[in-house]
Fold these 2 entries.
Entry 1:
Amino acid sequence: MPKFQARVLISLRSSVLDPAGEAARAAANRLGVKGIEKLRIGKSVDLSIEAPTESEARSRLELLSDRLLANPVIENWSLDIQPSNTSKEG
Amino acid sequence: MPKFQARVLISLRSSVLDPAGEAARAAANRLGVKGIEKLRIGKSVDLSIEAPTESEARSRLELLSDRLLANPVIENWSLDIQPSNTSKEG
């Protein structure tokens, strides 16, 4: 059965405060890294999934993202998926 | 001064256990999402930075990633940066 590599990026909605990101931004300033204007911390989930078709894999991962990986009340997510056998790339 | 959008993806080194990812994988199975073989949870940091040149912005963000955002002992990171005024894209 074909395998797919996927990445789900989960970010806080822009209306939600991000105290961890704000702390990192302040720490960057103390570290001497200038010019940072925004800094928001999210999650990145790397998966591999086995499914008969890419659209089937995609629909399973959409369910997973909505129900388990992200909290849709405060987070947005985006899904990137591609076939796992990347030997044909280039 | 030019602005740049950047994203730093931080993932656990493959030799490091990921109990949170393992728990999410088990939960996916209980949720009825079949076929998930690997699941690793990392961080995604979205930033905007103001710097005179793209290479200057990149070197600042490399320092930041190495020293603050990631723990190089257990994590790898990758940096993606692009100019903020994307009106010329296409």
Entry 2:
Amino acid sequence: MLKIAVLGCGRIGCMHAENIAAHPRAALAGVFDVHRPAADDIGRKLGVTVFDSAEAVFSSRDVDAVLIATSTPTHADFIEKAVTAGKPILCEKPIDLSLPRVQRCAVAIGTTKVPIMLGFVRRFDPGHRAARDAVQAGDIGDLHQVVITSRDPGMPPVAYTEASGGIFRDMTIHDFDMARFMLGEEVTEVSAVGSRLVDPALMRRLNDYDTVTAVLKTASGKQCIINNSRQAVYGYDQRVEALGTKGMVVSENRRPNMTTLHRADFTGKSAPLLNFFIDRYAEAFMAEIGAFVDAIDSGQPPEVGFEDGRQALILAEAAIKSAAEGRTVKTSEIG
Amino acid sequence: MLKIAVLGCGRIGCMHAENIAAHPRAALAGVFDVHRPAADDIGRKLGVTVFDSAEAVFSSRDVDAVLIATSTPTHADFIEKAVTAGKPILCEKPIDLSLPRVQRCAVAIGTTKVPIMLGFVRRFDPGHRAARDAVQAGDIGDLHQVVITSRDPGMPPVAYTEASGGIFRDMTIHDFDMARFMLGEEVTEVSAVGSRLVDPALMRRLNDYDTVTAVLKTASGKQCIINNSRQAVYGYDQRVEALGTKGMVVSENRRPNMTTLHRADFTGKSAPLLNFFIDRYAEAFMAEIGAFVDAIDSGQPPEVGFEDGRQALILAEAAIKSAAEGRTVKTSEIG
Amino acid sequence: MLKIAVLGCGRIGCMHAENIAAHPRAALAGVFDVHRPAADDIGRKLGVTVFDSAEAVFSSRDVDAVLIATSTPTHADFIEKAVTAGKPILCEKPIDLSLPRVQRCAVAIGTTKVPIMLGFVRRFDPGHRAARDAVQAGDIGDLHQVVITSRDPGMPPVAYTEASGGIFRDMTIHDFDMARFMLGEEVTEVSAVGSRLVDPALMRRLNDYDTVTAVLKTASGKQCIINNSRQAVYGYDQRVEALGTKGMVVSENRRPNMTTLHRADFTGKSAPLLNFFIDRYAEAFMAEIGAFVDAIDSGQPPEVGFEDGRQALILAEAAIKSAAEGRTVKTSEIG
Amino acid sequence: MLKIAVLGCGRIGCMHAENIAAHPRAALAGVFDVHRPAADDIGRKLGVTVFDSAEAVFSSRDVDAVLIATSTPTHADFIEKAVTAGKPILCEKPIDLSLPRVQRCAVAIGTTKVPIMLGFVRRFDPGHRAARDAVQAGDIGDLHQVVITSRDPGMPPVAYTEASGGIFRDMTIHDFDMARFMLGEEVTEVSAVGSRLVDPALMRRLNDYDTVTAVLKTASGKQCIINNSRQAVYGYDQRVEALGTKGMVVSENRRPNMTTLHRADFTGKSAPLLNFFIDRYAEAFMAEIGAFVDAIDSGQPPEVGFEDGRQALILAEAAIKSAAEGRTVKTSEIG
């Protein structure tokens, strides 16, 4: 049993804490939050230690590993401290919104052997993974094009949007990682287009977009097309498609049940899409904990690590620049 | 937290024990099996008491309720004992293979207020339940026909088949309950047809069938058509369809993921059907525990009880008689 | 070019006339109807001869073959006359509503070599045929069960229903033929159940049913389950499913286009089922003409002939008897 | 009956000739081809006049309208001649591969009242049209994003590719028109990315691509993403998706039948996609003839005309420039 402490007891931290508590090969070593009442609530509910400080977590002998789910600006600091303390890390994305800060963090941790895993949870979705596995197994031959459709059900709260770093760093970042996961080789060029259609006034104020398309290309010419919208009223739309020389594989959307209704004016699914990321990726979040435990047990590096977080941010920076300048941006201009 | 003890530590008992242990509103009070090592294994794994006898379970103050997952011939005895002990019961189907034994058990428990729930787990499947809810909500108007397709992936072991009581009592019993769940009124007539196609020699020896169709009719004329096969090599086929004056609702099959593969010679699902009843109905088994806890917490009778178990067995007896005599059998001839 | 004359210029006759006119290997030799204006209309529209009498058709040198689409009571007479005249026949189903009349017709035509094809059009549907071909090719191994769902969008006019001979002779007759098409061996036993749910008053008056299930069994035990309703408000529901030792094949419903609509409260097909048998089986009706021409060109007997019409009627008679008497009826009791 | 003559008796011209001959409101006035034997073959088969020259067609009193299906370099000339002769025109796309030639043709025909329709056949596909109609009816609210997937089954012959004008002018041109059809407002910016993956050597030699993505944007910010590949071995992949403020509509792929096969190792469609554009768009080609007849009968301009052909070519030119220069190109730079 790997004893994992959770830092950050917001919505995602609490979900991770419950998943760790329920996982057959992990145990919840305790929780911490700068806002003590939040930590107390979940600590009491799950019957675990509430730590007084992050330092107390890092120095505790009863903590084998840490899951970092605090606010984004603290991620890099906590990664550095956990590395110093020798505690394996599962950190929510992103490492930081600032690429220079990420670069400094990379320097600080150097060539540490402490396992660091980044929370790009979609890699652990059974459907997306089955698609990636089909690609790797050669089921579709040589890969040519990947199409990622990724649309949120609706705009997040304004305060969230203001602090998000913009759609490319906040939302598309998941798709940039999915692109790298599917493509199997590094992206060298990014062409992005942004529009303000869902909430034009807010987007203009923030110099942000709510509807974007990014086209990525690798050195060998493989393409990945990402389309994002902040508003898909029919539900959280999460699809991944890959075309190759021998065929196509598609990870389709999921619903809570497979019931269909047929009426004079309607034939279709009676249940809407799983509409909230925690529901949609429930299996993936649990599998992510398992993958973290596996990495530590096996001594192998986690399959998605610090460098993956850095690369996804580089693609976000390239997309921001591309959309702003109306030109294809090479990733070598960024990293 | 409702403290539930599990009697019977075979495959299904162990699954229930794990579900109870993981359920947020239930606790596993201990386990018992006549074969002590089986109880020891799961007791050790889950860190709970292993009882020495069934009597020890029924008399324990630390047991709020019991889940009976022992061999079928012991069900009725344990139900009677648990009622005497005042312990609420969740009992795996069937109550007994013998209708007279079930009738005696009914007399023995009389008008007890001890909650008794029968493990007709399919009622708790999200898809089938959504279909039933659509019917009850009037989404398809007045109900006319129900079609239940229920096919096992393959023949069970010979020893199991020999002791099963025959396909109607063992396999169709689930569909008889599903029919009653969907129809919302009692069945009055049963017409059944049996064939020996999968393993004719074994079926002749046991005077049993491996491929059957049963057509049920209610007093108002509503029909339910059940088709069963012991062998669907494409997977565990579990579908429920209901036709009414305003439309149709269908609970379709489920797969572990929603990935499709498209090749020159193939377009389809890349994943097979969920192929084992414990996987297929995993959500339903967990929901069943929740429904049991709810019934006890609320003081309401469980939504599927002893009488439902008795009625399903009456339909099985009617079907056996119908298939043997080549005629429609009224349930009033049986019960 | 095979010159075919059409007898009967009602809805179906006119459709056949247009199909023959449009067929690349057939020509419309003329039309006839006892109600002269009906024949004049379609004759003028298609620019062909309008015959004064059926006799004029049978004796015409310009007529190579005849398509009989007159009212049912005239079918047997016209078949006998066409045989006498040596004109190959494509006759709409049924041969007659009276089995004795069909038997007399069989005697009258004896061992004629004149090709007689029965209009069981569903055999020519691309989907149903692909399913049958999969069965014959061994794609699903040995056949065990066939399930035919066949529901009309709504009740026909009362006058039609009164003269129809009852649901088994009028509607299920198509499914009896489909059963024989799929099963590939003769049915020996029929168990049928009828209900009065759509229009109980009318059904009682006519001693008919509007909702029926028939279970057919062959000597080797293969089963075919047919379910019919006179009212499926979601559209003309036409499905055929076959289960065998190696898998299942399903011919699904068809829609005019493959467009789906996804909204907050709805995900599904934006187009309803093809709702009228002439639209649903448009391809099949055209293919039927082609099969008739092929049979005559090749000198081979048509793949669906007089005996198929007689056998389907025997199954209808058996089903009527079974539903009335509440017992399984052997076809040997009928034929 | 509108008497239409067909110029050009290649594969597409012959298909159009047969469609006109079969159309209830059109008649085939004759055919012409510079390669006389090609015209003779189809003329004999359909029993129509074979013209000696294009001039003979334009001057014939028996010709109400012309369908131009000759080689691309002759289109603009024939359009000019037909306009001079006052014959309404249905011309296969493109008008010409050279935008300057198209501009000169525009000047030549000036403000002619002679109806000119461009053969962008996909607009007449029932599925794509149902999607467009749903957008126009407001079913998905305000339009935000269109995604067009358009992939050929395999590379055309080398000679065809060499003369095609490149993938953007030859293949994407259909999608540029579909984008305009769906968007309902003009595109102002084009960002395109090209890769050489299917046949890199040929593509390098021709300075062409076989795998491309184009992202179009309108003045109001609406986006259309087109992805093309010359090689989809699973079949001719033709999908159109539109996202709006109230939902999404998708025109899915089509197959020749709706039969599915379910085996131990396979669940899916037993029939491949309709794999050849003439089969896939068979209904659309026939509907196109109907729309041409309707336009002439009603005196309304055809719904897809000369200017649509010119605009699609402008988008192709912008895409070529964008892919070559690695930047977003404004359509105002081209037109």
